[in-house]
Amino acid sequence: MLSVDIFSRVPIYQQVIDGIKDQIRIGIYKQGDQIPSIRELSVGLNVNPNTISKAYLELERSGILSAAIGKGYYVTPDAQERINRMTASSEKETLQVAAEKLANAGIPEEEVLELIRQVYQNQTRGNQT
Amino acid sequence: MLSVDIFSRVPIYQQVIDGIKDQIRIGIYKQGDQIPSIRELSVGLNVNPNTISKAYLELERSGILSAAIGKGYYVTPDAQERINRMTASSEKETLQVAAEKLANAGIPEEEVLELIRQVYQNQTRGNQT
Amino acid sequence: MLSVDIFSRVPIYQQVIDGIKDQIRIGIYKQGDQIPSIRELSVGLNVNPNTISKAYLELERSGILSAAIGKGYYVTPDAQERINRMTASSEKETLQVAAEKLANAGIPEEEVLELIRQVYQNQTRGNQT
Amino acid sequence: MLSVDIFSRVPIYQQVIDGIKDQIRIGIYKQGDQIPSIRELSVGLNVNPNTISKAYLELERSGILSAAIGKGYYVTPDAQERINRMTASSEKETLQVAAEKLANAGIPEEEVLELIRQVYQNQTRGNQT
DNA sequence: GTGGTCTAGACCACC
DNA sequence: GTGGTCTAGACCACC
Known about the structure:
4 copies of one chain form a homotetramer. With 129 residues, chain A is mainly α. Chain A has 5 helices and 2 strands, in the order αααββαα. Chain A has helices at 12-26, 38-45, 49-61, 79-104, 109-128; strands at residues 65-68, 72-75. In chain A, strands 1-2 form a two-stranded antiparallel ribbon. The longest helix of chain A has 26 residues, at 79-104. Chain A starts with 11 loop residues before the first helix and ends with a helix. The interface between A and B is medium-sized, with 29 and 30 residues. Chain A binds a DNA duplex (15 and 15 nucleotides) through residues 11-13, 37-39, 47-51, 53-54, 56-57, 67-73.
């Protein structure tokens, strides 16, 4: 389910971070669930264990995973909420900066609003499927 | 006016590219104008000349600057138009991706539309100044 | 009463050691008392029996428990005294090191002394309850 | 000046973190200073570059260092203040916990206070030298 | 030169 | 089995 593109410019450990977050967001892993061990995912994705470890450590620092040494990594109780909160704040920032640049480039407000509406329409369809 | 942050994750040569583009967009440099020499900017920004050169070459490849060998770099006639076109297409992409993630994180459409409207309102005020 | 946190950085066997010591200190187990069997505690805490065994062996080595083979573990006559002696010497060391670092960080002596006084005040209240 | 004990139970990267913090606290490195490069310190301490890198990344996350990619690591403007603040809060916690355990073990308040006073006396002498 | 990423693999404590 | 630390060394973009 989780996959990795070794030719991408986004680092593998970041792809793993994003992938795990996505799987928690979608509900594949729920709070309290144990996720695949470092070694398991390492062989599954054909990626060095150190790289997986780096991703898991970062997710632990973000409060999304907890490590039980000798037992494995577990999804924290508030993982889903944290992910949504973190995503919202960082993507709002990105969206605003992009909108400013579009405004500066002379793109009319209505065109940008329409772009947003289309995204949300497609999103709704996607969720209905 | 142009400045550089050595601690930023965006490479210095990219910061220079963005800075020059901004100055052309704002009208500080107009078509046909000569921009600061590599040496000048290198000293002014305390940046390695090779780094400035890399930025200027990239801007030349984009058709925003043209090099007069031995005389310096000049703003092309269609620089402003090119900049706006390039910005529009890349920032639309960025904006859409951000909007999708916000939709996934449960942010309602109206909240995102409102964000856009605020950006455009501030933008208008800013331009009036 | 005794509990264990699998996400703590302090190893589970150490948490068990500390927990048993605390229960003896408080008087829940007195000299000569039999403590829960390895199997019992293992089930109660949802911890691997080997881990409990490791803790009990360590407590036996410290002279706090004695094993009656086939019959279980018992609190030694001088358990309480040993615990207090061991705690005193190791915590004095910890306290001194912490005080040195606080001095280095510029925390005034009086502030640290006050901290100690507060701890002892709360302690007294706690014991009266 | 900075040194590392490979037989210590405290991880090498943690020793490096503590060592750099100490050097900043003492004033060997001041705000804005560049610290030794990863490779430099790696050969100097005979430690793998990855281990040094781990320490520097952690110090960056704590706001004590900033990385300028391609240039090196620099001490942040508020490094000293952060170090003192972080030390104070964590060591106060340690000190309180130790004091509680000493109180529980029956060590009289006056004995603990005296311990603190001695630490501060030695500290003063040390600073006078 | 600098830091960032990644591999391959060892060894450890812990469960 | 699990995660944590560390080595040795490669390759990359960037300065």
